[in-house]
């Protein structure tokens, strides 16, 4: 039985990060199947960094 998890990141956030990392074209043409493991890992790393920056108490003035 296959279990499908719902995404923790919105599609908008995924597209924004892919754009910043420079592989948005590949993502649009081939989907995540065409994106390298390294790029996916970098996407997750950037999403974690963004989330940590937005935690309460981590706001920079």
Automatic annotation (TrEMBL):
Role played: SASP are bound to spore DNA. They are double-stranded DNA-binding proteins that cause DNA to change to an a-like conformation. They protect the DNA backbone from chemical and enzymatic cleavage and are thus involved in dormant spore's high resistance to UV light.
Protein name per the record: Small, acid-soluble spore protein, alpha/beta type
